[in-house]
Amino acid sequence: MDKSNDILQEAIDNRIDAFVRGMMTEEEEAAFKSEIQADLELRNQVLATVSLIRGIRTQNAEKEQTILQNYANNRVRSVLLLACSVAAVFAIIFGYSKDKRYNELSGIISPYYTEYSMGDISRGEVDSATVTHLYTLFNNVKEQRNVTNIIKELEPIYATLDTDFTYNAYANDIAWNLALAYIKNDQIDKATPVLEKLEKDNPDTPISKQIESLLKAIKSL
Amino acid sequence: MNKEIPIRDKELNLFISTERERVLSYLRKKFSVTDNDLDDIFQEASMALFLNVREGKLTTLSSSLGTYFMKVCINQTLKFLGKRKKSVPLFNENAIVNPNAVRNDKIDELYGFCMDTEETDRKLRMEKLVNNIIASMTDTCKNILHGYYWNDYSTSTIADIFNFTDANSVKAQKYKCAKKFREKYNELKNKIYG
User: Fold this and answer.
1) What is the pTM of this model?
2) Which chain B positions have a beta carbon within 8 Å of A117's beta carbon?
């Protein structure tokens, strides 16, 4: 890159600096934005620089938060030490049994996870961004310990599968992963009807055999 | 003066030891104080920081913790000079920072405007990419960018802290670091997403 390009880039950096420090007037901001919109290369350069600023700040904010939070926690801990000691015993017992249960449920469902590849998103009518999101949810059933939010997102989609055929191509995956999430979340009573319906909808298929053995495993709990 | 700092927390301990050289380097340049006295000043300032953090007084800081600590150290130095009846220079502690701090809402606004995807997964991958590139930068770049965008230090303060000739050399170096980052970022982004 020659010197004139550097001068040009430095001028852009100065404008980014003025923008993120709130030093631009509304008119200046609007003009800058419309230049970015009209010029893809400029947009890429601005995005890279703002990503850098954002990255630096996020990393440091997290570090400082850890310092301040640790001490806030220590302070609260020292004040409540006596009162907490009894509760701690219960917490340990409860935490232990909760962990034990989580491990037990995770162990049951672990052979049934499927890896969803983002390359395979061309089925059906749904746009690729939605499918990518759906696949992320499915993969997160395996990856995340707390699956409450995944259930919250999958439940309404599952509820409309019989009436709205948008997700028709993904119906089995949605039902299957919702059931796995229910089991992981210790909601066996909710997982069972989902699995039974899925089995009924897919008689004599490889998936029905998997459902049968999973149902057997959760009923033995 | 030989007070023990009751630091139990490794993050705060690490923070203070990282800040030590920066703060001392700045104070040496700005005030006429011996190294022994600077040690005492730094010890006092560290104790004040520790107590304020422990008492939960710093939950609503208007600056970064580093900038706050630098100001505490400057105040301790001025107090020390006053006690020793030495000439206390006129010093505006606010002059060490840029009067217009970087604002998260403005960053998010510009970032959202330039971002070419709505996909959460892709956004997370891009953030990871950014973090990896930042981690691979030289210490000089990290120090300058951290000082400028996180601590909101002026370029002349950064020059004093990190021993640059002047504010202009900081500006030139900051530009080079950002340029290197952009090149790496765009190269990897194109490789991954085409």
Assistant:
1) 0.62
2) none
